[in-house]
Amino acid sequence: MAGNGVFVDIIEGDVFKYYSEGEWKKSASGKSVAIINPTTRKTQYKVQACTQEEVNKVMEVAKAAQKSWSKTPLWKRAELLHKAAAILKEHKAPIAECLVKEIAKPAKDAVTEVVRSGDLVSYTAEEGVRILGEGKFLVSDSFPGNERTKYCLTSKIPLGVILAIPPFNYPVNLAVSKIAPALIAGNSLVLKPPTQGAVACLHMVHCFHLAGFPKGLISCVTGKGSEIGDFLTMHPGVHCISFTGGDTGVAISKKAGMIPLQMELGGKDACIVLEDADLDLAAGSIVKGGFSYSGQRCTAVKVVLVMESVADTLVEKVNAKVAKLTVGPPEDDCDITPVVSESSANFIEGLVMDAKQKNATFCQQYKREGNLIWPLLLDNVRPDMRIAWEEPFGPVLPVIRINSVEEGIHHCNASNFGLQGCVFTKDINKAILISDAMETGTVQINSAPARGPDHFPFQGIKDSGIGSQGITNSINMMTKVKTTVINLPTPSYTMGKL
């Protein structure tokens, strides 16, 4: 159970503590932030409302801890990460319970997220040893006009203090995808979890605590965005921000100053279906991609662009699969569970009502109870409808019928977003040409969009983000190149053939 067993130290009364200097603490504010269970719509947990003074202290401690951590042998950093990964997977049940109650993630998927997170930490440890254990050697006479009088040695060094801000939908997995690369690279880490998902994050951080990382190296501050949000992202002690979320990321990037940013800010992932596509494969991928975790995924299929000649058949196949989706509470492992908040449900309903007013074809009756919205496929959607462009982050999927490949590509590229997309066709030449033409960070051929496997590059263009994620890219992004040049008194050449 959450807050019990090995996790007993992270809670006092009914309020979970924040983590600083290797200790679980109560905020001097004496205030807390309520976390609402999306299913019951009642307060499930409470977390500390940290103050700006406490953030200052966390930053001060993180800076000091990073200096000694950067001198810790690489193998030792990896060893501690492996230990944290094992502890995380050992305690998957109470962490998964938090995910079920905080964000209404289906029980089975919640366990999978925690296990996947442990695997990510272990992989990062291994990959970090490989990447950071190698340097580069350059000689000067490879550039015109130079003799071999200079030897250049390059290595990767840590940036300093990394601020990690994960989103509600994968609060554990997308936290460790930032934490593990930061730590293996020799940085310290300050985590600001989302409100919905904060308690799962606190449990995850305790697993790193139990692994024995140095005090102050990892911190986790909770609280109101209005009080500590901008204060954190604009803090002079932060040397890099890794953020996953929505529009807030745009504001962060404008205020952050001259520090590296890793931003993943959502998408309107387009699925283009050609005449020669395997329609059974496409339909299965569309339902999985559009409706798993109630569509609350950045990489969910957000709009289907299907050739008119096969549209009726595809819609029929998708509807047959939608009819089999189970709807209900996450504890019952239902396919469709309540969306994260009432405001999210209201936003989704606004998109649906706009489509209804403009005569989209409703393949199912629109149904909502509280935060629970039944899966809905909207056919004959036109570009003048909001749902054609806006990201619902819910179980509502629009279908736009197209008469040419160019029309589908145009709609995809006219979006402000460019995270992922997918193409269904049996013609690999067409697939490559369409992929090259789509203005998105990743294009999946004959499969739904997906962030993983976690070592694959993951990036968006346009309003979908800055930089690239994925384990290798994150390690590289959280380091900088340091160069040492040895100047020789006379040219020096390697031995020739005797």
Structure description:
This protein has 498 residues and is an alpha/beta fold. The protein has two domains: 5-265, Aldehyde Dehydrogenase, Chain A, domain 1, CATH 3.40.605; 270-445, 3-Layer(aba) Sandwich (Aldehyde Dehydrogenase, Chain A, domain 2), CATH 3.40.309. It is built from 14 helices and 28 strands. The strands form eight sheets. The chain has a seven-stranded mixed sheet, with helices on both faces. It has a six-stranded mixed sheet with strand order 11-10-9-12-13-26. Helix 3 packs across helix 4 and helix 9 (279-291) packs across helix 10. The longest helix is centred in the N-terminal third of the chain and has 26 residues, at 107-132. It is globular, with a radius of gyration of 25 Å. The N and C termini lie far apart (73 Å). Belongs to the aldehyde dehydrogenase family. InterPro entries: Ald_DH/histidinol_DH, Ald_DH_C, Ald_DH_CS_CYS, Ald_DH_CS_GLU, Ald_DH_N, Aldehyde_DH_dom, ALDH-related_metabolic_enz. It catalyses: D-glyceraldehyde 3-phosphate + NADP(+) + H2O = (2R)-3-phosphoglycerate + NADPH + 2 H(+). Its main location: cytoplasm. It is found in: Cytoplasm.
